[in-house]
Design brief:
Elements (H helix, E strand, L loop, with lengths): L2 E3 L6 E3 L1 E4 L12 H13 L4 E3 L7 H8 L8 E6 L1 E3 L2 E2 L3 H15 L4 E6 L7 H17 L3 E8 L2 H10 L4 E5 L8 H13 L2 E5 L22 H16 L4 H11 L5 E5 L3 H12 L4 H8 L5 H4 L20
Parallel strand pairs: 3-4, 3-12, 4-5, 5-8, 8-9, 9-10, 10-11, 11-12
Antiparallel strand pairs: 1-2, 6-7
Helix pairs in contact: 2-3, 3-4, 5-6, 7-10, 8-9
């Protein structure tokens, strides 16, 4: 395992973090014993950050039954404010209540990282002002060591980086074979401001897997991104390669971030991800795959409120 500084927090984080949305049974039933084995396997593989959320089903409750048996140096990160698929509450009272409830479920008096979850679905002004101020209070009170925000939208996460003094941000699907705007658009700002940069959705929410060839639509991604992913998958299939493995290689070896969150309760998948961190990339195959990547503006998906997906900062970019 490789370890990297998490921004300027003073903490070193594993290049791969363990994501718990599958552990929380968001995608189907997972026996507790399997969930427990996956957590311990992740830690044994060197992952020292467990990323969870109050939105991830019963993930926090399950971790609360496990966490006392983990090494003391394993970091815990959770999120609040997302209550359902289309329900959010980022008011100061709700943020505080969410973290307190998470701490109770986890059986802890603090977490290492607390982030507001998927802020691009609501008007940003109150989140970046009142919401951020509440995060600062919670950090000052010792209920969390570091604070941050997460979202899908590239313009939104740029605003977080530029308009707040968070310690960490997490962004989905912008550090992938399909779209590496995390490296070009986010990493320079994060480095300048000393913010830890967490990548998630290395397989682009399932599109950079062999199963993409059977998809007609994706519930979040744009149609043009889906077609680009399918072109990549066909290229990998023709070359006898596993598109998901190559996607993990790219995210872990080429994307400029501090850690990439990978969620699975399948120990073979976790082991494969660690292998992807160190297995040299087939450069010829990678060049073929990247030939299907879309121009930056076409890569972006409209996730959340339209106003949070506008690109005014880029000359000539459309809203």
């Amino acid at each position: 395992m490789e370890y990297r500084p998490l921004g300027t927090t003073g903490v070193d984080v594993s290049a791969i973090s363990f994501g718990t949305s599958p552990l929380g049974q968001l995608f189907g039933p997972v026996p507790f014993e399997q969930a427990r084995d996956a957590v311990f396997a992740a830690v044994d593989l060197g992952m020292n950050l467990i990323d969870t959320s109050s939105y991830y089903g019963d993930a926090e409750e399950r971790l609360g039954r496990i966490i006392g048996d983990l090494p003391d140096d394993v970091l815990t990160a959770t999120k609040g404010g997302r209550l359902g698929w289309d329900e959010f509450d980022f008011t100061p009272a709700a943020i505080r209540s969410s973290l307190e409830a998470s701490l109770e479920r986890l059986g802890r008096d603090h977490v290492d990282v607390f982030q507001l979850h998927d802020i691009d679905f609501v008007p940003l002004g109150p989140v970046l002002e009142d919401g951020f101020a509440e995060l600062v209070k919670l950090r000052e009170e010792g209920k969390c060591r570091f604070i941050g925000m997460t979202c899908y939208s590239l313009p939104t996460i740029r605003r977080v980086l530029l308009e707040t003094d968070v310690d960490v941000v997490l962004n989905y699907s912008h550090g992938t074979l399909l779209d590496d705007s995390m490296t070009d658009e986010l990493a320079p700002i994060a480095k300048e401001r000393g913010v830890g940069l967490m990548n998630a959705a290395a397989v682009s929410l399932g599109m950079l897997t062999p199963g993409v060839l059977g998809m007609e639509k994706h519930n979040i991604a744009s149609d043009v991104s889906l077609r680009a992913a399918q072109a990549m998958a066909r290229t990998a299939e023709r070359r006898g390669a596993d598109i998901a493995f190559v996607a993990n290689q790219y995210a872990l070896q080429r994307v400029q971030c501090d850690t990439t969150v990978i969620g699975s309760t399948n120990i073979e998948h976790l082991t494969s991800a660690v292998s992807a961190l160190t297995t040299p990339i087939d450069e010829e195959l990678l060049a073929e795959l990247l030939a299907s990547r879309l121009p930056l503006e076409e890569q972006q998906w409209s996730v959340g409120l339209p106003e949070n997906n506008r690109w005014e900062w880029r000359d000539g970019a459309s809203a």
